[in-house]
Input
Amino acid sequence: MALAKITSLTGRAVYVPGNDIDTDRIIPARFMKCVTFDGLGEFVFFDVRHDPQGNKIEHPIDKPAHKGATILLSGANFGCGSSREHAPQAISKAGFKAIIAENFAEIFFGNSTTLGMPCVTAAREDIAKIAAAVEADPQTEITIDLVKLEARFAGQTVKIAQRESARDALVNGRWDAIGELIDGKADVLKTAATLPYLAA
Amino acid sequence: MPKSLFQKVWDAHTVRTLANGQTQLLIGTHLIHEVTSPQAFGMLRDLGLKVAYPHRTFATVDHIIPTNELVEPYADSLAQAMMDEIRKNCAEFGITFFDRASGKQGVVHIVGPEQGLTQPGTTIACGDSHTSTHGAFGAIAFGIGTSQVRDVLATQTMALGVLKVRRIEVNGKLRPGVYAKDVILHIIRLTGVNGGTGFAYEYAGSTFDAFTMEERMTVCNMSIEGGARVGYVNPDETTFAYLKGRPYSPKGAEWDAAVTRWKSYASDPGATYADVMKIDAADIAPSVTWGINPGQGISITENVPSPENATSADEKAGIIEALEYMKLPAGKPIKGTKINVAFLGSCTNGRLSDFREVAKYVKGRKVAAGVKAIAVPGSQIVALQCEKEGIDKVLSEAGFEWRAAGCSMCLAMNPDKLIGDQLCASSSNRNFKGRQGSITGRTILMSPVMVAAAAVTGAIADAREVFSVN
Output
């Protein structure tokens, strides 16, 4: 199972401002009545993109200028709340390939990394700089460089950060651990043998 | 060198270090439910993999199950499809399924402890963020995403980075009318909703020593609401007494050996912690949330915050956004705010002791006119015991609808939902925008007895006054 080495990615961005954007906001629970993740993309942020009657209301994601954006910008504690992988799946299936935020909730961060969707952090003022560049020209291309740990856009460069285990996994193409976990089978048996409650 | 329980359990379950520096951690007990598992089984099939330890995975159905409809097919065909899917997956892969017909179905975090599956010194994973509940027994329990559900099914392990441990000590006796729910709402108010990111919480101190297992579960359950993925209490005689005689608890000579082993996992005196927080139990009051995340809480006697009193621009923006959504006036008492719905239940507060405590106070009283009140036991076993004790009758006579076991209105993936901007006094764990099924619905989190007080008065109330607790 060879995975892509995600060393850098470039794309246009959309800024969804706010702190503590929870996973219920990202994908409301009613859209999780499904047995596959297919089709979740259209429901991302549904309840802030629609009024209570289901009519579209203004939201950055729906602005024609941001069509095709692949980088999501946001605030602090992004993805808090539920462990639902439906949240990063919905973001990913809506076309996003990476998220830049001030920081991320623990489970969301892990879920996203396992999908090969980098979550990188940046200082608030730097996110504001990227957002301002995108506001000035939605066609601005942003490059997230996981090797140099910087984001480059509109002639500017800002620092980004990522937990080293995730960065290592992404740049070396081992962000989905399943293959490596399966390879550890002999060691799993050894560890299990030391734990009485795991005896068959 | 003295170690914390977290370090001991982590070390005992470490398989090896992975190339990126994470640990391949053995997961002793895997719990699954219908919402986050079907895609994982799909991935297994795509990869041609089997379930490695089918006898260590246990399933139930809770999120989508209607609590007012017992006969299949359910009116909601999507709910029925999810029911059929988990039944099929469990049968195909040889996994024990606590279906409704078993009499053991319920919210997954209530079923595990009830069956004796949740044991000290073990690792537990479940595709649900409230898996931290199981930490009440001295287990290290992780909420995981669906790809990790796949990893655990396929290998009984997952890749994880080690967490720091913060010890949260609460000492002293809680004041009358103050419950475990108030303790955790108080803690989250102090830390904020992301203060626990990267930490496992060790809850300790004389307040926790005196707590029942059900109270410990209520606190551990909401660890994630403060950002901590894991929360636990060291195992003690209270833990062992709860587990003795449960269906999956060790029996006979094995029981004694297990207790000895379980005791050895408790944190050593002198263990070091990345952080220590100390709270005086007497400082904790009956608490309610006023905003749109569980950290936005106050005691019932306080006023709703005002944006102008915020200490930072972030806090100010947060207050403005929350009050606009909640339609609450800034700087005014929250007491007296009219409610439309009262919800008793959830993995936080859907256990026997919760319903017993409520029944004690609502006996002979009536739910206020115009309030819809529902009481949803966390499991079929909780329901049966309540029915044996006549608790269902007390609640029904008071005007609560007595339902079948499930997650119900905690997250509204089933017919129980708020309508429009209804305000709900809720014993659940999240007050996010839209959480209870209406995109303008409003949630105020509180203890079950505070929900009861709101139900009978029709407004957010101080249960100590309503029920003359002193």
